[in-house]
């Protein structure tokens, strides 16, 4: 059967659609052919697939072929069976009855006698699906003919159609037959479907039979293949691609199962012919099947490619290019394994070349068949990913080829290249090609490894799995591998890992010497052929061998020169990168971008290179893969340097420095730093900002934050970590402070303009802190300058990128570094005593200076006394520590004697005498933190004489009179640093002070308040005047003497000096107690000395007294006495008080008497007649008042709230001037309120009070009853 | 017994937080960078694959010549990536079961680290105790 292969293939290529045979009984075909063929291809056809499920096929192609056609005639029956798929799928029998049109009767007879038997004969072949098309040529106007045609057709239907199946249809050539074509089409489709089903059944049966025998020795794969492919081909013809694909898949499985894995039979692999290395996995017509047949099967190399090509053809037809790519990739991988197995029989590097061409073919084919947006997005992603994989596979193999022929030095030794190539085994030909005799091996190029920027010396990454030299020489037939192996081990030890860093040997001599030494040690190798090849020779030999292998001129061209290689390399890398990017495999894509960048870099295309490198670096640093970053970042930095992108270059340097320390040697790190520093100090057009957050980090010192009071400057200490390998000098440094709870408040910068040197690692720097607003502060940004370089650091954690959300959300809450309290009182100034001090005497004023948790170091107190107060400048000011009020009180109680000598200081008290300097006192240091009291000697001056009061005229002196004020200004501050004066434009040295202003009121007063009263009116003019002394101070007063200088009109009784009996003195008056002194005086002559009266209108009380008191309590002996310090000496003070004495009025001239009310009392609302009786007591002196001698002016005064007065309130009444004349004044009044109220009073305004004697003498009260209950308002009239 | 293995823990943001090279093979000089490169590239595959399966242990998701990469993905999307070379003796399938077990134990250890309030998520795991534990587990399971 295998003999039919050629025929099978030609049939397949000749016929690729369904055939419909036309049995033209009545020579009708030429007339209807065009109309029939117009229906092709069938728009839709419902066919059954292999599992007998209906499938709708669109645009099913078919061909009408007459049965008389040669294609259908010349077939042998066996062929027919074998290639049944090409047989017609439907048979149309065309008949007409035109010839019978003339005679009706004859027509029917004719039909019965001639046509019917003939048709019966045609259709008796039951193998075929047939149906009859009756063509009526009857003209529609020819009724008879039409009728006849109908009759014949009816007859036809009766004879050939069955109930089950309509096998007839009628075509009216001249008449409209709209349903015919649909009818015809459905009949054809039905026939095709039935035929297809039957044939599928047949093939399946056959295939089943064969496959049951597949493990038997007689098994012939070719037969199976023909059957299987026939079936597949039939499906393909019927456009059932899905089923066809399944057949091919099964075929492949069966092949792998039966042929490939069948051990025992040594089969030829194939692939040794020239041109085989060009992958034909998408070209099924590459080789005829007859060419690849071998015994009863096919050669694997060609056949598997053939199968894949068929599969991919179907997949493309199914519009599934992504599946082609997916299957293709797996196919390439698995096929390359097969190639590896047979590598020893295949041409040199055949496998690599095949993979390259296969990948490229697959990429081209799939992407040209792929329309974007065709598939779902995830499939699309997968597709691009596959393309990327294909590209990178192709790229790796291409690089391997290029390496073998010596382009290794032009390859970037990057991680990706190294990872791909260093684990990829060398090609293992049975014999490594040797140098052809005509080849010259002089193409020695000097290849020096590129020295990286910053002098980074890194061992170049390997691009080879093992030393090529060893591998190549080992695989040479004429050499004994073992010996060489050992020797090369020695050599590789010299070369380090034996990597071919200088791929083309720098000099031939060197290689020669090695060869020489080898020759010496092993005399067997001295022949020129057997001599181990040098590396250069290996390259040349490989190149020659490859030229033999590669038939594709384009591929060879790509390997012909370094430039061509790089172009192809770039193309492949770009393709891989683009496709990975499209498939969202950013890591794969970006890595390849880096490779592209390397090529750009090499060609001086630094702009593009920098762009790509930046992408790579961004990815690696974003994800924190530092080892990888360390590989790429120096390249980026170099690009940036060449491009003069200072900002980028500096930031790259900083990033290099902030990488893990182990990744670069200390020297390299120092090189990075010196780059930064030298650029910073070089001329820069524009100052470059630089973020060094990863390199210089800072934080506050551990421990509690610095605490300051509002408005105070301070010194902030900050820990700064430097990641620089060496000391680095920062020309200036500033830190911003950010208030934690006040976001809108801008951050404030703290500057330290002096240069700071940061050691590597931890540093502590201090910054002057100007006064800040209250609140708590965290560190914001560190900025500074290195040369012209402005850097800033945000102090994020060093371990990761700053912008990742993980860090932000888990960021430790920043610790406040500074707390500034709200304004609060820092110091309190208060008067020590509240009780009055002696006026007009030198007294100590105590001022308590109480610092409230705040140091008063260096404080200065300005004292400004108010009016009426002056400081005793001559005297020193005392300062002592102040213990406590209660303790102080205890002191007073316990040691009275100590108080006496004014030395009430406890042992632990500090004491100091200070002097006043221009109203300022510098507070001593010991007083900076303790409450202290400042004693200032002052004297309140009051020139007014104290005035006594009398019981008749009780007049107290106002407290305000004795009030004096002292304005105090305390100047203090916690530090006196250089600060910026806000009011001036230039910074200046300025002492910042706090000021505390306070005005203290001090109460001064006389020691006594004097009041007088007449104790007794004795006979005649003698009076006993009682002088009551109220002690006004908190001190014990001792009266030594008292005398009274009387005013005119009064004289001391008995012409004495006015002193009381001295035996009572000294009289001690305790604080706030009273004492009384009696003076006996009598009225003197008033008219005697008129002039003197003007001089002395008041009497003066003189008291000589002493005072004994503590200054902490209040009044105390005047300052001078204390300063004398003489024990027991007594200072007598004089107190003078003016007393007003009035001569008593003894002879009133008028008497006013209030006449009693009626007995029933007063009621509210009830009017009452008030009566006063005015009586002249003595005869009116006519000399004195001549005008109103007999007229008296009266006035009734009443509270209008209480009284309503009817009648005249004021008027003149006539009163005779005779002694004893009297008159009654009556006024009608109505009381308005109940209770005790003052009655209206009668006054006589014209007459001096002293001349009126009243009865009752003073104001009195009368009772007014509530109004009587009245019911008159309630009772209706 | 795998000749060499590189084990790496990658945090949610694809940041490697722990790296260990375990195994008996002599270390190649370029190994760190090579392993990093391979493991980093494997993240591309994990990102696609992790969401398509409910399994936590993704066995042999990537092969790089003779290096096989397997990943254990935790619910918090922390990846434990293990890269083995030359699995001789057992098949990858065989390794899968043991590897998953080993990685689960590592997971329990690293959970303790991650739960430590003083550990800043995303930062490197520097615990020497953890390191010792991982290496011991590697000896046991690989």
From TrEMBL, chain A:
UniProt keywords, alphabetically: Golgi apparatus, Transport
TRAPPC10/Trs130 C-terminal domain: residues covered: 1161-1242
Compartments it resides in: Golgi apparatus
Residues annotated as domain TRAPPC10/Trs130 N-terminal: 16-325
Location, primary (coarse class): Golgi
Superkingdom of source: Eukaryota
Signal peptide location: none
Annotated PANTHER family: EPILEPSY HOLOPROSENCEPHALY CANDIDATE 1/TMEM1, TRAFFICKING PROTEIN PARTICLE COMPLEX SUBUNIT 10
Name of the molecule in the record: Trafficking protein particle complex II-specific subunit 130 homolog
Automatic annotation (TrEMBL), chain B:
CDD domains the UniProt entry points to: TRAPPC2_sedlin
Taxonomy, superkingdom: Eukaryota
One of the Pfam families matching this protein, by short name: Sedlin_N
Protein name: Trafficking protein particle complex subunit 2
Protein source organism: Xanthoceras sorbifolium
Biological classification of the source: Eukaryota, Viridiplantae, Streptophyta, Embryophyta, Tracheophyta
